[in-house]
Write a structure and sequence with these properties.
Length: 271
């Protein structure tokens, strides 16, 4: 323990020494800071996003017409189940408001602690997918079903049993930090698929893999049932994450190949 009269410079030197002695701690704090910056940027995007509800509703109605054309317009049916069946609506509300954050962060921590090489790929894919999602939100604001007539905002309906208010899954009083016109793509669905991909790549357990797939499927079901996303929001969210993971893996493979076949590597192998 440092004495009460320790000068700030001595405190800084002591902290710096701890960082040098514990590189894993230093890297962990750096990674946590990067993720906090990503989340702050994600939340701050609402300051740049178009808040024109009329335009976002028009985009949503165009999407609905396309879904009707291809037979994907199942949102009224599923939203009705979550509205009429209390236990389903309450469970779905808790799932939507919590699983997205707890499971994603939990998987990141597990990877960082036990799967360092996979952590780098997974984190890069997550960041890349989030940046693509932000681009969509800024360029194509999309109203969720709960902003369209005929759909019920399930989280608002059951807000009395949880910590969320009437602004998506944001805690009461913090609705101003939520971009409610960011339905397309669904990063709830995308992050859930990210979890499934991570588990498939890192675990040989058939049970774990089935649970990961079930998690992604249930999340897609919940986001539609609660009136927060259209079916195609989930599909595009999956596509964004799949594309991001593919790009990251391809880039990593190309980098490893180039490093392995560089002139320096070739010369080292022949010495």
């Amino acid at each position: 323990m440092l004495p009460m009269q320790t000068r700030p410079s001595e405190v800084f030197q002591a902290v710096s020494q701890q960082f040098r002695q514990h590189p894993r701690l230093r890297r962990g704090l750096t990674e946590a800071a990067l993720l906090v910056v990503l989340y702050v940027g994600y939340s701050a995007s609402r300051l740049l996003a178009d808040n024109d509800l009329g335009s976002a509703r028009d985009h949503a109605l165009e999407l609905v017409r396309f879904e009707q054309l291809v037979g994907l317009n199942v949102e009224p049916l599923i939203n009705g189940w979550f509205t009429d069946i209390d236990w389903l609506g309450i469970a779905g509300s808790f799932w939507y408001a919590s699983a997205h954050y707890i499971v994603t962060v939990g998987i990141l921590i597990w990877l960082f602690v036990s799967r360092q090489s996979e952590y780098l790929l997974a984190r890069r894919a997550l960041v890349f997918a989030t940046v693509i999602g932000l681009g969509f939100y800024l360029l194509l604001p999309m109203a969720p079903p709960r902003f369209i007539g005929g759909y019920v905002d399930v989280l608002s309906q059951y807000s009395g049993v949880g910590w969320w208010g009437a602004d998506a899954s944001a805690p009461r009083g913090l609705g101003q930090i939520t971009n409610e016109l960011a339905a397309m793509p669904s990063l709830h669905a995308g992050y859930a698929l990210w979890v499934a991909i991570v588990v498939w790549r890192t675990s040989s357990s058939f049970r774990a893999r089935r649970l990961a797939i079930a998690y992604a499927a249930i999340t897609a079901f919940v986001i539609v049932g609660t009136g927060n996303h259209w079916v195609l929001d989930a599909v595009v969210g999956w596509m964004v994450v799949g594309f991001s993971y593919a790009i990251v893996i391809t880039a990593s493979t190309c980098t490893s190949y180039a490093a392995h076949h560089s002139p320096l590597a070739e010369r080292a192998r022949h010495e």
